[in-house]
Amino acid sequence: ETGVTQTPRHLVMGMTNKKSLKCEQHLGHNAMYWYKQSAKKPLELMFVYSLEERVENNSVPSRFSPECPNSSHLFLHLHTLQPEDSALYLCASSQSTGGQETQYFGPGTRLLVL
Amino acid sequence: GQSLEQPSEVTAVEGAIVQINCTYQTSGFYGLSWYQQHDGGAPTFLSYNALDGLEETGRFSSFLSRSDSYGYLLLQELQMKDSASYFCAVRDEGNTGKLIFGQGTTLQVKP
User: A69: cis peptide before it, omega within 30°?
Assistant: First the structure.
């Protein structure tokens, strides 16, 4: 238990569906991240939020839409996804220190797009 | 740009010692971290080196040489449960706290 929770843990959706992934951190951190991890591949950073402001968007398609209503919650809204978007989506949080920051990851949402 | 290199796979037997190397190229340096990820699980933080030398935490140790832009993770008395992927990471040169991860090394521990 890292203090970062994600729901749902598993999600199956069709290409026309709209769904949202939720992440909540109980660590008092001020930065949150979304990563995508496809099978047998490394972590791909998608979005970074620092102090509730999006500070990075790594050329992610517009069918992925993040939302950070406060420093403890992060959402990833999904619509009209493609089968190649099937992956493990990981949320992480950290505390900005000006130096190296340890990231604490949630358990992930395993997404399957049919 | 920033990049990290680590071997893609390592195999060892139970009880043995294994070393996973990581070389990096960065414009600024804030230290080297290691994360462990079991298949289907979330990455978990293992260790962090900001200064040269060896940091020991139980069976795991991590080493850093800043002059060589090189570090390694040393796993001793290997157990079957150590079979996982291991990622080295450095902080991005920007101010976002973003980490740049290596490609990961898959460690397979055999009986």
Answer: no
Angle among Cα B3, B58, A4 to the nearest 5 degrees reads: 60
* Sign of the torsion angle spanned by Cα atoms A24, A28, A30, A36: negative
CA distance A96 to chain B (A): 6
A-B C-beta contacts closer than 8 Å: 60
Q: Name the closest residue on chain B to residue A53, using Cα atoms.
A: B96
Q: Which residue has the tokens 């949080």?
A: A93
How far is Cα B62 from Cα B55, in angstroms, rounded to an integer?
5
**Residue of A52, A100, A109 to mutate when probing chain B, most B C-beta within 10 A:** A100
**Do β-strands B9-13 and B105-110 pair in parallel, antiparallel, or remain unpaired?**
parallel
Burial class from Cβ neighbours inside 10 Å (0-12, 13-18, 19+) for residue A84 reads exposed
pLDDT along chain A (114 residues), means of 10: 90 92 95 88 86 77 93 95 94 80 92 94
As a whole-number percent, the residues of chain A with pLDDT over 70 amount to: 95
Convert the pLDDT of each residue in B18-76 to its tens digit: 999 999 998 778 889 999 999 888 899 999 998 999 999 899 999 999 999 999 999 99
**Which chain B residues are within 8 Å of A103, Cβ to Cβ?**
43, 45, 99
